[in-house]
Design brief:
Layout (H helix, E strand, L loop, with lengths): L12 H14 L12 H13 L10 H8 L3 E2 L6 E7 L2 E10 L1 E2 L11 E3 L6 E3 L4 E10 L2 E9 L7 E9 L10 E3 L7 E2 L2
Antiparallel strand pairs: 1-4, 1-11, 2-3, 3-9, 5-6, 5-10, 7-8, 8-9
């Protein structure tokens, strides 16, 4: 990418490009193409961000540019969220890997992600997200669950693999609800 972060008070060619991009998106002139980031452009940008499911900050940031320019991203080939908890004398490891290409957004989609390990399959929860369980496979020391999910701010549904393992057989079933802090985000498709 390389587009700069823009806000009220900025001006120049990048602001003009932002105005042109918004007019193109809405297929009509919704903002004057003046090259000045004024209150009118701020309102149009906030509307666009809210329409995309983003927080309407009025700042043209990376996620906003991705949505506006149609950039495609993919999830990395590694877990995007991991946790390790101790239950009695056992260590329980939880790792969530997301798969596939997605449109703009999803960068901050994994905020407040949790896995309830007392259910089978484990219940994944994240503000504004929907996780649909799919298949289950036994692996050494635990299980892998696959399914599909729709994340807030992401334009497309993506797949997931939730790996749960423990140093003691079955110990993960008593781990309760585990917070899964995001450890990585989207990678731009080049």
């Amino acid at each position: 990418m390389g587009e700069p972060e823009l806000r009220v008070g900025d001006g120049g060619e990048w602001v003009l490009y932002l105005q042109q991009s918004l007019n193109h998106h809405y297929r009509q002139e919704v903002t004057a193409e003046s090259g000045e980031f004024d209150a009118a452009l701020d309102g149009v940008l906030r509307h666009f961000q809210a329409q995309q499911g983003f927080e309407p900050t009025g700042v043209a940031d990376t996620v906003t540019w991705q949505a506006l320019t149609g950039a495609r991203c993919r999830w990395p080939d590694e877990p995007v969220a991991t946790a390790e908890v101790t239950v009695a004398d056992a260590v329980v490891r939880v790792a969530l890997t997301l798969t596939g290409e997605v449109g703009a957004g999803g960068v901050d989609a994994l905020a407040d992600l949790t896995a309830d390990l007392t259910t089978d399959p484990p219940t994944l929860a994240c503000a504004g997200a929907t996780f649909l369980p799919g298949t289950h496979a036994e692996v050494t020391g635990g299980a892998e669950y696959t399914g599909a999910c729709a994340l807030p701010g992401a334009a497309d549904t993506t797949g997931y693999v939730l790996a749960v393992t423990a140093s003691e057989p079955g110990a993960w079933l008593t781990a309760g609800t585990v917070a899964l802090p995001a450890t990585t985000g989207l990678v731009e498709v080049t």
